[in-house]
UniProtKB/TrEMBL annotation:
<feature type="transmembrane region" description="Helical">
    <location>
        <begin position="64"/>
        <end position="85"/>
    </location>
</feature>
<feature type="transmembrane region" description="Helical">
    <location>
        <begin position="39"/>
        <end position="58"/>
    </location>
</feature>
<feature type="transmembrane region" description="Helical">
    <location>
        <begin position="173"/>
        <end position="192"/>
    </location>
</feature>
<feature type="transmembrane region" description="Helical">
    <location>
        <begin position="106"/>
        <end position="127"/>
    </location>
</feature>
<protein>
    <submittedName>
        <fullName>Lysine transporter LysE</fullName>
    </submittedName>
</protein>
<keyword id="KW-0812">Transmembrane</keyword>
<keyword id="KW-1003">Cell membrane</keyword>
<keyword id="KW-1133">Transmembrane helix</keyword>
<keyword id="KW-0472">Membrane</keyword>
<dbReference type="Pfam" id="PF01810">
    <property type="entry name" value="LysE"/>
</dbReference>
<dbReference type="InterPro" id="IPR001123">
    <property type="entry name" value="LeuE-type"/>
</dbReference>
<feature type="transmembrane region" description="Helical">
    <location>
        <begin position="139"/>
        <end position="166"/>
    </location>
</feature>
<feature type="transmembrane region" description="Helical">
    <location>
        <begin position="6"/>
        <end position="27"/>
    </location>
</feature>
Length: 193
């Protein structure tokens, strides 16, 4: 297993913009970092639960339908490229009404977030299951990925609080960088590199 590639993939995907991260950034602008952390805790809880469910489901799928992994990698790569395009085309951050950023909304947002669903369905079978199959090892990787997700969400809180003016003045450059990171993630998940 290439642990550097695995960690880089997890960090890039969890740190790149998505519905939950955009809500976090917006919430920090309107409610402050402390209140936004409630949302982060809910989002992290849902992220971990989805990883556990995905790992259990993938263990069954890999045993029943061995080629499902290839299909999931292709679909995941296409979705990542779509997200990269949307982020690249995204306009400047605008002040909008405060989203209801609490624990429950963070939990619910992650449970229906297509970026998170796709990530949780592909990360374990793509990077971990080809090398490790024991339940304890898979659970350890779920914990590692959940912690990475928590730090990614928290990073959005910190950056939103500290760099608000900078983010608004350089939105296009940041969108381009995030889009490029997602293209890299799509390439990594497809297995091309």
């Amino acid at each position: 297993m290439n642990i550097i590639s695995f960690l880089l993939y997890c960090i890039v995907v969890t740190c790149s913009p998505g519905p939950a991260n955009i809500v976090i950034l917006s919430s920090v602008q309107h409610s402050g970092a402390k209140k936004t952390m409630r949302y982060v805790y809910g989002a992290t809880m849902a992220f971990g639960l989805l990883l556990i469910l995905s790992t259990l489901m993938n263990r069954v799928l890999v045993e029943v339908i061995p080629n499902i992994l290839i299909i999931m990698q292709v679909v995941g790569s296409i979705y990542m490229l779509y997200l990269a395009y949307k982020i690249f085309k995204m306009g400047a951050m605008e002040d909008k009404p405060n989203p209801n950023a609490n624990f429950r909304s963070g939990l619910l947002m992650q449970l229906v977030n297509p970026k998170v669903l796709l990530f949780t369905l592909t990360v374990i079978p793509s990077y971990v299951m080809p090398f490790y199959t024991s339940s304890l090892t898979l659970f350890m990787f779920v914990i590692i990925i959940t912690v990475i997700g928590f730090f990614a969400f928290t990073t959005w809180v910190v950056f939103g609080a500290i760099f608000r003016a900078f983010l608004q003045n350089h939105q296009k450059v940041l969108n381009t960088l995030m889009a490029l990171f997602l293209v890299y993630s799509a390439i990594m998940i497809s297995g091309i590199l």
